[in-house]
UniProtKB/TrEMBL annotation:
Domain Prephenate/arogenate dehydrogenase, chain residue ranges per copy: 7-289
NCBIfam families, sorted: PRK06545.2-3, PRK06545.2-4
Enzyme nomenclature, EC number: 1.3.1.12
Domain ACT: 293-360
Top class in the EC scheme: oxidoreductase
Native species: Pseudoclavibacter albus
PROSITE patterns: ACT, PDH_ADH
Family named by the database record: Belongs to the prephenate/arogenate dehydrogenase family.
Keyword annotations: Amino-acid biosynthesis, Aromatic amino acid biosynthesis, NAD, Oxidoreductase, Tyrosine biosynthesis
Name under which the protein is recorded: Prephenate dehydrogenase
């Protein structure tokens, strides 16, 4: 562990991220001071052993981590910079350019501020959703602005790495443009598609498979928080939505006139380009290698998943990824096991020999 991070660490905001940070730091032996505008959230985080309330300590923090909603991030950072003239202040807001510009307008001491954004979260917020391992294996973006004091990068990097994250360095504008594409636009698309289910007259959702669940999973996220995020990053999200709007319009027009020359080709090209885009998403260990899938039918009764994992282990084939779905109207689950393509046939044969049913 790097010695660039010293305590005490003050966490402002004890929602999902703040409490998770507190849990991780406390587990690592740091003194964590908790503060939240909601006395209930602060108390819950304390009872979860994420740290101690600020009322119970007078020690000056060496690092302040601001974990509050985007619309008040800059104000809280400015306040903490004034309260603790020796402390470094960082934050975890999912937008970086707006708070930085607001701090500049306020005339805040930017030498003691360095922004960050852990690319981790859950569909549910609040301290009760927090986990000490929330950040393990996830990117933590650090956004230097060029005026931070010596050692600031090392301290924030040490914080992220202690919590299990891999650090990435981007400037604030590049960060916001990146999350607009890979986080903010997907949230809107997911929410809009899920909203179509509200007027589902035929109860088609009852037939839903993994595809619909995959696309709409994040639609359950906190709408109030997302309005704030999108309000802060709207100028970078809107052009992506406009381009997507054009793509959808062109595909819709082609589907309305499938017998017209070029219509089927246009649809096929859009689908192929989507497959190419998926290949750019890093997989296991950051690689982009494609895996093969073996779908196993698993009875819905205790011990079956454990047995499946044991049988996969005995086959001496490495499990690359896994997801599970349920068959509508049947007491059986569909477990999709991802392995290297060259191992697919061997795994299928080994599982069938153990009595598993494989969906071909």
């Amino acid at each position: 562990m790097s010695h660039a991070l010293t305590g005490p660490v003050r966490v402002i905001g004890t929602g999902l991220l703040g409490t998770s940070i507190g849990l991780g730091l406390t587990r690592a032996g740091f003194e964590v001071q908790l503060s939240d505008a909601s006395p209930n959230n602060e108390r819950l985080a304390h009872e979860l052993r994420a740290g101690i309330p600020i009322a119970q300590t007078s020690a000056a923090p060496s690092l302040v981590v601001v974990c509050v909603p985007p619309d008040v991030t800059a104000a809280v950072i400015a306040e903490q910079l004034e309260l603790w003239p020796e402390a470094l202040v960082t934050d975890v807001a999912s937008v970086k350019l707006q708070p930085l510009e607001q701090l500049r307008e306020r005339g805040s001491d930017l030498s003691r501020y360095l922004g960050g954004h852990p690319m981790a979260g859950r569909e549910t917020g609040g301290p009760l959703s927090a986990r000490a391992d929330l950040f393990i294996g996830r990117p933590w973006v650090i956004t230097p602005h060029g005026g931070e004091r010596e050692g600031a990068m090392e301290t924030v990097r040490a914080l992220a790495e202690l919590l299990g994250s891999n650090t990435v360095t981007l400037d604030a504008r590049a960060h916001d443009e990146s999350v607009a594409l890979i986080s903010h636009t997907p949230q809107i698309v997911s929410s809009l598609l899920a909203a179509r289910l509200v007027d589902d007259e035929h109860n088609a959702a009852a037939l839903a498979g993994q595809g619909l669940r995959d696309v709409t999973r994040i639609a359950a996220s906190d709408d109030n928080l997302w309005v704030q995020i999108l309000a802060a990053n709207g100028p970078r999200v809107a052009p992506i939505l406009r381009a997507l709007e054009q793509d959808i319009s062109e595909v819709a027009a082609a589907l309305e006139q499938l017998e017209a020359d070029g219509s089927r080709l246009l649809v096929a090209e859009r689908m192929r380009r989507g497959a190419e885009g998926v290949q750019r998403i890093p997989g296991k260990h950051g690689g982009r290698r494609q895996f093969a899938t073996v779908t196993v039918l698993v009875e819905d009764r205790p011990g079956q998943l454990a047995k499946l994992f044991a049988d996969i282990e005995h086959s001496n084939i490495n499990l690359e990824d896994l997801r599970m779905d349920h068959s509508q109207g049947a007491e059986v689950g569909l477990v999709e096991v991802s392995v290297l393509p060259e191992a697919r046939a061997t795994l299928t044969e080994a599982l069938e020999a153990q009595g598993w049913r494989i969906a071909q």
